[in-house]
Amino acid sequence: MDVNKLLAKLHADLPSENTGIVASYIPELAHAQRDKFGVHAVTIDQREFSFGDYEEGFSIQSIAKVLSLTMAYQRENKDLWKRVGVEPSGTPFNSLIQLEQDMGIPRNPMNNSGALVICDILLDYLADPKKDLLAFVQSLTGDETIYFNERVAASERETSDRNRALIEFMRSFGNIRNGTERLLDFYCSLCSIEMNCRQLSRTFLFLANDGVSLSGERIVSISMTKRLNAIMQLCGLYDEAGEFAFRVGLPGKSGVGGGIVALLPRDYCVAVWSPPLNKKGNSHFGMAFLEGFTSQVGESIF
Amino acid sequence: MDVNKLLAKLHADLPSENTGIVASYIPELAHAQRDKFGVHAVTIDQREFSFGDYEEGFSIQSIAKVLSLTMAYQRENKDLWKRVGVEPSGTPFNSLIQLEQDMGIPRNPMNNSGALVICDILLDYLADPKKDLLAFVQSLTGDETIYFNERVAASERETSDRNRALIEFMRSFGNIRNGTERLLDFYCSLCSIEMNCRQLSRTFLFLANDGVSLSGERIVSISMTKRLNAIMQLCGLYDEAGEFAFRVGLPGKSGVGGGIVALLPRDYCVAVWSPPLNKKGNSHFGMAFLEGFTSQVGESIF
Amino acid sequence: MDVNKLLAKLHADLPSENTGIVASYIPELAHAQRDKFGVHAVTIDQREFSFGDYEEGFSIQSIAKVLSLTMAYQRENKDLWKRVGVEPSGTPFNSLIQLEQDMGIPRNPMNNSGALVICDILLDYLADPKKDLLAFVQSLTGDETIYFNERVAASERETSDRNRALIEFMRSFGNIRNGTERLLDFYCSLCSIEMNCRQLSRTFLFLANDGVSLSGERIVSISMTKRLNAIMQLCGLYDEAGEFAFRVGLPGKSGVGGGIVALLPRDYCVAVWSPPLNKKGNSHFGMAFLEGFTSQVGESIF
Amino acid sequence: MDVNKLLAKLHADLPSENTGIVASYIPELAHAQRDKFGVHAVTIDQREFSFGDYEEGFSIQSIAKVLSLTMAYQRENKDLWKRVGVEPSGTPFNSLIQLEQDMGIPRNPMNNSGALVICDILLDYLADPKKDLLAFVQSLTGDETIYFNERVAASERETSDRNRALIEFMRSFGNIRNGTERLLDFYCSLCSIEMNCRQLSRTFLFLANDGVSLSGERIVSISMTKRLNAIMQLCGLYDEAGEFAFRVGLPGKSGVGGGIVALLPRDYCVAVWSPPLNKKGNSHFGMAFLEGFTSQVGESIF
């Protein structure tokens, strides 16, 4: 099978009109061009395939939550799970309702509240948090051009009232320790990481490779890798996780910048990017493309 | 590896005391002996392994929801998913709260409301619903000793007020078509199916075998098999689905009778039984045993 | 002050267009003519004032819940309040959400679930429930022409799925004792009572008259009267009770037939009728008229 | 009737043991002595009655929310009600759940979120907010010894995470305009006002006197007075407002310091104080005492 041709064909098969909407609640994200489309896949034996705007950078947004979780998991194997759960939430990504019922313990580390707790944990471990975070992310591929988009981070900090509410709310239950502005600054930098599809699929390859990164370094144990994949499978696409498992069948994570990364354990990792989002906040074409991809390739985890 | 020895060792490694509680809300279930324990695994090339009370029958309860779903899916590939979703719920198995927000569409076919909708669909297709259902279940293994436990079914019908509420509530949204008592009778029979661990793992083998049953018959397509597994993975253990994915890493389904069935696609299916349940309503020792099993075997879908 | 003239003037002051919508979920109610308008007031010294279609009968619907509550309160002074609360709900009249949180105890006897519990209580006391209920209602005014509208009752029974759900749900918590169909039949008859504005204001006069009816009979004690008025004030207009207290300032009760009855303790009772309802399910013009009325008269309970 | 004797007798009739619990979530409040009890009533013709520790000051806490609401209502008659509702909430005083459903508009100005919005409004009007607020409160009685307890205010600011969450959450919906710390500082000062029962009943007399204060000044119009009383009646005792209307039958407001103020329009105002709170956060003995009081006096608004 010529995978590059398959990628092109799958793109050609997408509907002519994209009914999704480019995210605009973070003003800086609204600049994304709605007809951009890129995809890049890399296998654990490092063959690579791609199509479209796969070399164009975009804001990976919530996809980065898997990377911060990985860093925290390296440092806190047990206590981590006392402060954040591993269950899908059944509610939108920034909801406070469940947090009230659950006494300030986020359902999982993939929604905003859980990712904030993870950042709060990392602030207790990292000497120079933003620098250390970026160094870790770059180390996964050895690519030192990966960076924080400062304009996006600033734009995000300016529209962070809801996240501030989440922080103070969890603090009232004793589940946040660091100062609000310091925490928000770190969190907004995390979300502002910019990559292209190639960088993104390479970065996440360690999760397809039993915990060993592209550059051959063990990042997490096999068991931890499985658990990170389980969390992505169950919680990675917010309240559309079930639909993603049903249609695509791979552990994955989406971001409001229009990116989705997904992976088949012990096989490959794929990153797709198309800015317009569906109603659940996931890339409309990204979902459709990945569904076609796993249907054609005939492989999924199930 | 001697799998039978492994099963025995894993059982020996369980805590000496079981803090779970045998389900009693269906009076007939309360008779189960709390120290019973059985496990049976079967591979797609039909090797079999077992330990303990694996030949003793028990009420499979909600595990049967996967079987009714399979029957409905055979008959309605598309319209089915307009009447029931595929998302995890984040709420207990008999909750009405989400149903009110979601206008009578159950989140998934694994909780009570969704399983009732599936039964309502089947009533429109089956000439002799209970007989046809049992025939289908028996056909998966060719074992005609599998039966409805009439005492359990009767006990369940007598404690069905909550399910009646779910039915009438969904009917008020137009999502139930058949008469309440007829529907409940069918649903209670479904839940009263009795099997032992060997029968259970053999019955579910088709989901590990790309849709082909133990007796070599194609039950559903490969694609449909993947989707059934995805639903089990995301929704099969109620609001503990995330924990199960995290700790065990296999698609599975539990029942309040203390049974859990789980499977590794294209490899094996395993059924475990221990009546005492944890707070989420899943077999306490069953969860622990399967966690140990996938840790030792080192294989999961992730 | 010429009260009849005031009533006419207040009617003339209503907006020319009524943006409300006539209830249609009970098909028989949809026949109501949207431009009908009637009002009738009676003082405790039995002066009477009226305007418009005050002699035309309409379905009093939920207004009747106060009458069934009064009958139950006469029979069960203490135990009653273990099965139903006296708190406003903050949710729509037929919601199941709170009922789940509150373990099957309705927040108050003015919403559907609470009124069903009250009917369930009455079924345990009344020899011939429908006949006894009608006799009680007629006895408040001595007017034997008040009747159940059988067509409305039948129409209501046919669209009772939601109420059936409430009944079964509360039964699952042990808070319903009688058979579902018997209870629904009684409840639908209660809601089908037909009165005109004059009959309605006269019927409710006992609540303005410290518990003594128009015909001079003590119905409930002074203390019980106060408590019935308190319940109407806090819960009588569903989730618009606060707005009604704020704008009108009188204990009152509304029905989806477009009627509202309100009263000033130790002074008068007024009934108004206009079928189109606002978004909260209360008569749009009825609310506006009563607001004008208490503003002009300058009297409210506050 | 000798009212002073009645007050003493009603106190003697209270149960020997108080099962309530002194509030401790604001550390400074935990110092209150649990067996303190005071009551003071004043009529609109300025007769005064009292019993017990009625001259001992205590933290009036949420009772002060009525005073800030009055100040805001003087300044914004219409727009005010676009930013806060007048409906009872059916949920605890500091819940965020409803706020999420209601898009950041608090149900009423008596719960924490609503009172924060009222403070936000006042910050836009007052030149020297804390000074102006205290001057207004003192002006109601002419008593310049009324003060902010700075220790309580400081203690409250230190335990304000939940209120910070409410502020940021409402800000995310555009319903808060001023800086968080400035707003919290003002709000905590408001709640820290200290009065004794005599000062409290005198302060609230204007609400029993059609809007005219003890010192003879018109504070709000008659219509506005009625509306303030309506809000207190429906929302003044949190999710126990119905119980208070049912048992006591007067508009009232409680605070976690153990104070309750209640009033009979055009008659009298009464303040009672006993620190131990019931489960809903209202003074346990205060509720019981007022129930006895209105039962004995035989007067309520209903």
Structure write-up:
Four copies of one chain form a homotetramer. The first copy, chain A, is an alpha+beta fold and 302 residues long. Chain A has helices at residues 3-12, 65-75, 80-83, 97-101, 112-125, 129-139, 150-158, 161-172, 180-191, 197-203, 205-208, 222-235, 241-247, 284-297; strands spanning 38-43, 48-52, 58-59, 147-148, 193-195, 252-254, 259-264, 268-273. The first copy, chain A, has a single domain (3-297), classed as DD-peptidase/beta-lactamase superfamily (Beta-lactamase). Chain A has a five-stranded antiparallel β-sheet with strand order 2-1-8-7-6. Chain A has a three-stranded antiparallel β-sheet with strand order 3-5-4. In chain A, α5 (112-125) packs across α9. The first copy, chain A, starts with a helix and ends in a 5-residue tail after the last helix. Chains in contact: A-B, A-D, B-C, C-D. The A-B interface holds A 85-91, 98, 107-108, 222-223, 225-227, 229-231, 233-235, 239-243, 245-246, 249, 251, 265, 295, 298, 300-302 and B 85-91, 98, 107-108, 222-223, 225-227, 229-231, 233-235, 239-243, 245-246, 249, 251, 265, 295, 298, 300-302.
